[in-house]
Design a protein that fits this description.
This protein has about 325 residues and is an alpha/beta fold. The protein has nine helices and twelve strands. It folds into two domains: about 180 residues, 3-Layer(aba) Sandwich (Rossmann fold), CATH 3.40.50; about 70 residues, no CATH class. Bound molecules: iron/sulfur cluster.
Length: about 325
């Protein structure tokens, strides 16, 4: 279960991509923390930077991208200060990541046992093969895969089983944090629901923290303790999950929730369609990046970027509606009212 101690802290993280049309800040000055044993849902439209943020936490940003500034603290160590060799040791042993398609991470010509034993051998070279094998068998059995299937190849397992193998690659080394990037997206709803339940059980049993990156806000309601909402490279709201669903503060979060059906049975339900499109990040709007689409826009919104500020205990919002500014009362024609 969750406790109040921080496991992971992201401070002022910036990830940039150098493209032909200029520098794109896919993650821009992002800060948040993650408690031990906490499940944090990271949500937003595609292209908002959530997957980039997940990869940055693993220091897995490929060129032409790079982490240009910030800090990534886990257990009193800033991962950005480590050499690539030291970082490689921590990937898997401390932080592990699972993706939408596990086949991109699993070697198709290696048995499941080979993947697990190789992981143990790389990080714990002194571990005897027999005890490593016993560990891996016990673990996959715990995750609902029969022991004997450890000798099968990835393509012989179902999609849900392959995701559980990916989870086991982190658990076998006692990782503290699993970053799951759209890990349930390609599964059918029944398998998805089972995997979500299992992630919760794993958190309870192993005390690990999980970041669930998803566009599926309903999934977050089922599993997460807190939610971070991303828009155009910024985190615009962080909140305990139930508070967010009861009373979303940021206009973007409100739009996101209104665009999700509350029932699959009522075809007459009218869903909100958010106006406009997410911005081009090589030339983002000035001020609040949501201002061209915001129903509550004020003159200050296009002039200055609000900060992510705590409005009530545990609730953080990046929006001028909740912050003071001398120009806030200015009317749209620029006159002070
Ligand atoms: Fe809307 Fe202004 Fe808040 Fe941005 S800062 S979300 S434009 S009210």
């Amino acid at each position: 279960m969750q406790n109040n101690e921080n496991l992971f802290e992201v401070k002022d993280l910036v990830v940039e991509y150098h493209t032909r049309s200029g520098v794109v800040n896919a993650v821009d000055q992002v800060s948040f923390d993650l408690k031990k044993g906490e499940i944090l849902g990271l949500v937003g439209e595609s292209g908002c930077g959530k997957s980039t943020l997940g990869k940055a936490m693993m220091r897995m940003i490929a060129k032409p991208g790079k982490i240009s500034s910030g800090e990534l603290w886990i257990n009193d160590v800033d991962l950005l200060k480590l050499s690539e060799n030291e970082m490689r040791k921590r990937r898997g042993s401390e932080i592990s990541m699972i993706f939408q398609d596990p086949m991109t991470s699993l070697n198709p010509v290696q048995r499941i046992s080979d993947h697990l034993l190789e992981t143990i051998h790389t990080h714990e070279p002194k571990e005897k093969k027999a005890s490593a094998l016993e560990r891996t068998q016990a673990l996959i059995e715990r995750l609902g895969i029969q022991r004997q299937r450890i000798d099968e190849y990835p393509h012989q397992l179902s999609g849900g089983m392959r995701q559980r193998v990916m989870i086991s690659l982190g658990l076998v080394l006692n990782a503290n944090l699993i970053v799951a990037d759209e890990a349930t997206t390609s599964l059918d709803v029944i398998v998805e629901a089972k995997l979500v339940d299992q992630l919760k059980e794993i958190r309870d049993e192993f005390g690990i923290s999980i970041i669930l990156i998803t566009h599926n806000i309903a999934l977050v309601a089922q599993i997460a303790d807190r939610v971070a909402v991303m828009y155009a490279g910024h985190i615009v709201e962080i909140s305990p999950v139930m508070d967010l669903f009861d009373d979303a503060k940021h206009p973007y979060t409100r739009g996101l929730l209104q665009s999700v059906p509350t029932t699959i049975l009522d075809e007459r339900e009218e869903l909100y369609k958010m106006p406009g499109e997410p911005p081009n990040l090589s030339n983002p709007p000035t001020g609040c990046r949501f201002h061209p689409r915001c129903p509550d826009v004020m003159p200050i919104c296009s002039q200055e970027i609000p900060v992510l500020q705590e409005t009530t205990e545990g609730r953080f919002v990046q929006c001028w509606l909740y912050q003071d500014h001398p120009n806030k009362e200015m009317s749209l024609d620029g006159k002070v009212s």
